[in-house]
Design goal:
alpha/beta; nine-stranded mixed sheet; two-stranded antiparallel sheet; 8 helices; 11 strands; globular
Amino acid sequence: MSKKNILLISDLVGFGNLATTAMLPILSYMGMQTYNLPTALVSNNFGYGKYEMLDTTDYIRGVFPKWEELGFNFSAIATGFIPSEQQAKIISAYCKKQAEHGAIIFVDPVMGDMGTLYNGIGNAIIDCMREMLQVADLCFPNYTEACYLTDTPFRKEGVSEEEAIKMTEKIHALGSKSVIITSITIDGKPSVIGFNHTNGKHFIINYEEIPVMFSGTGDVFSAILIGHLLDGETLKNSTRKAVDGVYNLINLNKDAADPYHGIPVNKYLNIL
């Protein structure tokens, strides 16, 4: 396999540019050999209110032994939406084995936004994501997800720098080596805060907020971030490029008729 190969373990959405569908073209364009394993087949974005979903836990349970028999290994694994605690245990065990072979584990604890869980996601998912953090080299929840992970009340007005740092420390204590929290207002400014375990330092990146909500922007952020990290960039620089990339894509599509459909990333790969 290529030196820079990555396995995406997340949901596969039939209608919409999000999750695996959004991440694959970005990482491929950035030079990564990409593979995927769907955690669920989802008809469309949960935001539409009606959807059909097939949990693929039984399929995954059979896949991992086959891959182990065939000697498949990955230099990185990125996990996203996981529909059950049982599946989380299976995936985290596999990630742990791959980490022993040198794989870097990225965890996006997909659960919610704007202070609430996504439609169709129950409280049991919180424990699933805490399970995944135990094998993470880097996790990147948004502020809402960070609140659920750490049992911290969500505050629409945001938090102070000290409070934001404490949240990263709580998530680090759950098991993730490095931590990024996105979409968090710090001292009145839209921000991303990071903790880099390799140097023990925190960093904050402020950005201008465009007043429009797109589905799948977290997946785009994840893909850009991971691509730059695997290309040898620092965590802070990779985060800055991911923030700028998402901003540019939202700005180019801010007048789209259906934000639930996500951003058509294939049209804009050259600007990443």
